[in-house]
Amino acid sequence: MGVNSPIFILSEKQYEDAQNLPVILIKHLSKNIDLSSYEALIFSSKNGVIAIDTLTKSWKNIPSYSIGTGTSKEIEKRGGTIVYEAR
Question: Taking the model in full, what pTM does it have?
Answer without folding.
Answer: 0.70
